[in-house]
Write a structure and sequence with these properties.
The chain is α/β, with parallel strands linked by helices and 227 residues long. The chain has two domains: 135 residues, Response regulator (Rossmann fold); 60 residues, Orthogonal Bundle (Arc Repressor Mutant, subunit A), CATH 1.10.10. The strands form two sheets. Strands 2-1-3-6-7 form a five-stranded parallel beta sheet, sandwiched between helices. The longest helix has 15 residues.
Length: 227
Amino acid sequence: MMDGLAIRNRRLLVVEDNPETRNWICATLQNTFADVEFTAAGTFHEAEALLFGPSDVRRPFDVALLDIALPDGSGINLIRRINAGLPATTPVVITIYDDDATLFEALAAGAMGYILKGVKTANLIEQLRRIDSDEPPISPQIARRMLSFFKAATPAQKSGAMPEARLTNREIEVLGLLGKGLTATEIAGILGVSQNTCATHIKAIYRKLNVSSRAEAAIEADRRGLV
């Protein structure tokens, strides 16, 4: 069993209608994060009751891992309700849908991460560990799709660009590696630093560039010619 530093002591809701996939997600949580408490729901209405139902049914959750296509409703509607009424709950999508329309509708509704189901267990673990690292869990394919979308919008914004933020040489190295799609763990290994040190560099980069996601950081890395 791997150690559960990333989402220890968190209460998670897993909303997934496919029993096999639901069992995989729950088993990954149980085997990886020893102290996590999770509850599973297979339908929109089950999840709705757990999140918003009567006090004898409703439970508090720190994170909700939500499928989008549920048999009796849309996970995106749950995300909207969570975003509007449950500020202590972080909604994260876990789905097979990687099209632009679904992705951006979910993000606009308030999703704080977007994970594709077709990943290996190790990749799912890596995405889940990002929740407590101030790093939204986003599958690499989704990050690339977001990068392509926002890159197309940047030319119209360049005329009013603000002065370029100053980064240290190490931060520039980290930004370049982020732009290439590497994870924080991979970057730490390449640079020979601890994961905590790498996370500190990433937070500093986000603050200086006034960004809040890997996709936005990757756009800046591309703009600076680091990719």
